[in-house]
Amino acid sequence: MRYDSLLDSLGGTPLVGLPRLSPSPQIRLWAKLEDRNPTGSIKDRAAFFMIEQAEKDGRLSPGCTILEPTSGNTGISLAMVARLRGYRMVCVMPENTSAERKQLLAMWGAEVHFSDAAGGSNEAVRVAKEMAAAHPDWVMLYQYGNPANARAHYETTGPEILADLPEITHFVAGLGTTGTLMGVGRYLREHRPDVRIVAAEPRYGELVYGLRNLDEGFVPELYDESVLTTRFSVPSDAALKRTRELLDKEGIFAGISTGGALHAAMGMARKAEKAGERADIAFVIADAGWKYLSTGAYEGTIEEAEERLDGQLWA
Amino acid sequence: MAIEVRIPTILRNLTDDAKVVEGSGATLDELIADLDSRYPGISERLVADGKLRRFVNIYLNDEDVRFVGGLEAKLSDGDTVTVLPAVAGGSR
């Protein structure tokens, strides 16, 4: 397939069946391969839509500085688009993210400002908001509250999935900014009112939650609970186990958050099987495993890998 | 009826530093009342005006209780309840 430029090739990713993980011909799992995007993750869609919208609104013009709290994929996507469009990119990132992400951001020319490991992305968001206040001319696209993030999935990811799988019964994705689930979820519900929209939320080691005060938590502004059918918290050992299962059984080398989504998808498959219902369950491969090799997630036993991941933001 | 309850670091000052405690109740509401009788103050950290606090997430066997009845969620023997603060998460 031919495109005028890299950005023009955004989206249009394959939806592939998982014949060996699907329980039966009546209950089928389908993976949306979002690692096949320009920088290798689903975040390219949100980054491109947020920058396009800011340009249309007159918030961004060449030479502007973009600031974003991000522990990786969104920053990498924004840095790529920013480089092509002539913007300076500053990321605020928790220090406990993988080495590959730091290197990739630097490669695409982003400047990285580190926030404390304790507190995870909450802390990165807080620091970025402070920096934005100190630099009123910088543009914070703010993926957690930018409607263009969810719109990217409403206009592209959702229609692609429905076109490829008109018989869809479930959509499962990781829950972070909530953009994917909100956008795809709303689109699918308009066309398949009975579709079940299922969120898989990563459950990290204690360090990440440790210093969180219960009154100072964080819920993304984009989040609308009514779009979801349900929401699961997936512990790191289950996510690791499923990530490896996906590789062993279907040959797909995915990042760890994808293991979380697969875990929730398999749970829905089991439920459908018990209820004697047919199911076509689509879930998102958010990115490939390359960026997580240094975390040790793919080596040794699950227990060893889990120990190495403790305290890291694996999704 | 024993239900395993996992307590986040931030609330362990109320549970003598225990990570996991046991409780009982037919619903989440009853479970929280039972916990509060032994660990006074825990209820008001989780619930305000008869609803779960906005930045508190409670999971019943890993499923967000807000989708399975909230405080009215039905519990059974052997269930695991996990309490966590709402966080922004990771690779965004």
Report on this model:
- The complex is a heterodimer of chains A (315) and B (92).
- A 6-stranded mixed β-sheet of chain A has the order 1-2-10-7-8-9. In chain A, strands 5-4-3-6 form a 4-stranded parallel β-sheet, sandwiched between helices.
- In chain A, helix 1 (43-56) crosses helix 5, helix 5 (147-164) packs across helix 6 and helix 8 (236-250) crosses helix 9.
- With 315 residues, chain A is α/β, with parallel strands linked by helices.
- Chain A is globular, with a radius of gyration of 19 Å.
- The two termini of chain A are 31 Å apart.
- Chain A has helices spanning 43-56, 73-85, 99-107, 120-134, 147-164, 179-191, 206-210, 236-250, 256-275, 302-309, and strands at 15-17, 27-33, 65-69, 88-94, 111-115, 139-140, 170-174, 196-203, 230-235, 279-285.
- Chain A has 2 domains: 7-36 and 157-303, 3-Layer(aba) Sandwich (Rossmann fold); 43-140, Rossmann fold (3-Layer(aba) Sandwich), CATH 3.40.50.
- By secondary structure, chain B is an alpha+beta fold.
- Chain B has one domain: Ubiquitin-like (UB roll) (Roll).
- Helices cover 17% and strands 27% of the residues of chain B.
- Chain B is built from 2 helices and 7 strands; from the N terminus they run E-E-H-H-E-E-E-E-E.
- Chain B has helices at residues 28-38, 42-46, and strands at residues 3-6, 20-23, 47-48, 51-52, 56-60, 63-64, 80-85.
- Chain B has a 5-stranded mixed β-sheet with strand order 2-1-7-5-6, with helices on one face. Chain B has a two-stranded antiparallel ribbon with strand order 3-4.
- In chain B, strand 5 and strand 6 form a beta hairpin.
- The model of chain B has no long low-confidence stretch (mean pLDDT 92).
- The A-B interface holds A 43, 70-74, 97, 101, 120-122, 124-125, 143-144, 175-177, 199, 201-204, 206, 208-220, 225, 228-235, 255, 257, 286-287, 313-315 and B 8-11, 45-46, 53-57, 59, 62-64, 66-68, 82, 84-92.
